[in-house]
């Protein structure tokens, strides 16, 4: 099958591997939940009010990225902790300077004399970062009553906090009157599949395509064998082909997508430069939009962005889609005004 407009072979439906969504409505606590479409896993950005996320979703979280520890970004830690207790699972948490000690202090506020009886030994690794991207980590294990166990320090060049086969998470140091982190989730390569070319080889779509894409992301040798398995009305089928043949015949590699999350930042040149670099050409930019520009002086005192300022940053970054959040409650009846202002600034030429 060919596209009726472009005349090009038709691509199989290849959605981005991420499914990002704000945790709360735009007047609620900031937070972003990034689900993985093809894994039982999610990333969580900020730990404010998490009641909108059911336990099933929270238990998918493998990594938590905290911008800073003001209460509306951190008090949901306890809910996540309570869900994880007694389970054989773990979490990695990342935050600004002092973060590991703050996690330790939260845990020290509880009594842990009965945790030896819990069926699972849940643990978390808390990493705090400095402006030179040195990371100091602490492991906190349930059955050790969450006593701090120092981890070997690490250097994280370029602010890359997490670097995996298909994606990376990058951070930038920003200013909110205190150190605050902005984050970008970057898909490394997006591997598209030509549907018609699969058919020409007598193949069908199926879970085996994920294994094929993983082999490409690993830079596996072309001689690597790939088992194409699928089921249809006539039964189960299996073919064994080389990775090199499949790459040449049915795959197209394109640049991956980027999702960016920025909240609680003052509007000044250094912040603007760092945010535009972090969010450059982002497919989706989630950015705070706290005040209307008529209240820019108040926003400056609070170290927050106005809607116009947020829109201008989005435009400078070349973000394709801008999703505003963290609206001040003073505009409870003026949400449309905030949205119009950021949209106008983002679209201005």
Automatic annotation (TrEMBL):
InterPro entries: RibonucZ/Hydroxyglut_hydro
Single GO MF annotation: 3'-tRNA processing endoribonuclease activity
Source organism, top-level taxon: Bacteria
Natural source organism: Albidiferax ferrireducens (strain ATCC BAA-621 / DSM 15236 / T118) (Rhodoferax ferrireducens)
Protein name per UniProt: Uncharacterized protein
